[in-house]
Amino acid sequence: MSISYRIISNFHDASTTRESIAAFLAVTLVLCSLYQWLLPKPAPGIAYNPKATKSLFGDAPSMIKEVCVTGEFRVWCAKQVKQMNSPICQVFIRPFSKPWILLADFRESKDILTRRREFDKSSFLAQGMACMGSFHGIYTTGDKFRSNRQLIQDLMTTTFLNNHVGPAIYDKALEVMKLFDLKMELTNGRPFSVKKDFEYASLDVMLEFAFGKNWVHTATGPQAELLGKMSASDVKLGALDQPVNFPMVPIVDFLKSVYEAPEIVEKTINAIVPQLQTWWWSKQSWYKEIFNEKERIMKEQVAMGLRNYRSGNVKTGIEHMLEREGTRAEKERRDPDFDSEVFRDEVKFGYKQHQNDGLTS
């Protein structure tokens, strides 16, 4: 009896062991197959980095390392094109997603952007700029995109550029030159950085033609006022070829929020999962402060612009947008929606678009 029991027990143990080994092999096979399935899949016929296809994270670690040092995603993209020695290549930035195609050919890029209807806005741009609100830039081409974009189409006409943007740039350029004169007097022939000065001047220009005289604060003005009170003895001078560092006057909260917003957008675009990063940042106090301040000032400026528009005094970017909304509402036989969040988001994007397009050109 005991012998037969031991035989049955040994048989049961052997059967259990075989089942365990079979289950382990099956799980291993499934995991290996899943891993291979999740690996980046390159599009055929387009150059890519072979090492990236052997990691679930693709080119993301290389990109993150580069961006952390330079702060420029485009610099990393340019390096990939050069390393692969091809005007078109592909990179794998986001896990479990399709590759991004990098095209470094001007004629082909222009053709795609201006003539090829089968191409539309990339989702990574829309996701990265979602923190800017419901402006037209986050939508693919369609009714919603066209409806929102109509609000700012007057801001790129030659009339508006000549009559409003041009004078704003000229006036602010004179302020920058005055600032440079003050710095040159204080440095006694030594170099100094102008990066921040140009960034602040750009900020002042776009707010000048967006808000006009309704906005009185500037970023450049306080810097020039501070330097005007300084003497050469107040400046710490080093070697003749060593740049001189000047103290910076803190700018008002709204200017600071507008100044910092593009950096947030760029970091979001460069993120592995933009939606997750935007959600996480939206819970942070610093993020709420930036966008709450922008929203508060935008409501004030829209209200002042609306008064000017109704009195027939249309000059600034906001007032042109209000006029466009009024005209459009009249054609569509509806009440104009001057207080909509979409309108304020388009205003914010309108002056950011001029910062990127009007000033660089």
Give descriptors for this structure.
two-stranded antiparallel sheet; 361 residues; mainly alpha; 14 helices; globular; single chain
What does this structure look like?
The chain has 361 residues and is an all-alpha fold. The radius of gyration is 29 Å and the shape is globular. A hairpin with an 8-residue loop joins strand 1 (88-91) and strand 2 (100-103). The protein has a two-stranded antiparallel ribbon with strand order 1-2. It has 14 helices and two strands; from the N terminus they run H-H-H-E-E-H-H-H-H-H-H-H-H-H-H-H. It has helices at 2-38, 60-70, 73-84, 106-114, 123-128, 143-149, 158-187, 195-211, 220-228, 253-270, 274-282, 285-310, 317-331, 341-356, and strands at 88-91, 100-103. Residues 353-361 have low confidence and may be disordered.
Task: Map the helices and strands.
Elements: H1 2-38, H2 60-70, H3 73-84, E1 88-91, E2 100-103, H4 106-114, H5 123-128, H6 143-149, H7 158-187, H8 195-211, H9 220-228, H10 253-270, H11 274-282, H12 285-310, H13 317-331, H14 341-356
Antiparallel strand pairs: 1-2
Helix pairs in contact: 2-3, 7-8, 7-9, 8-14, 10-12, 12-13
Rg calculated over all Cα atoms? 29 Å
Q: Tell me the helix content.
A: 55-70%
Overall mean confidence score, pLDDT = 80
Largest sheet: number of strands, sense, barrel closure: 2 strands, antiparallel
What's the total helix number?
14
- Strand order in the sheet with the most strands: 1-2
- The run of helices and strands is HHHEEHHHHHHHHHHH
Beta-strand content bin: under 5%
Structural class by helix and strand composition: mainly alpha
Overall form: globular
Regions with little confidence, pLDDT below 50 for 5+ residues = 353-361
Number of strands: 2
The end-to-end span amounts to 97 Å
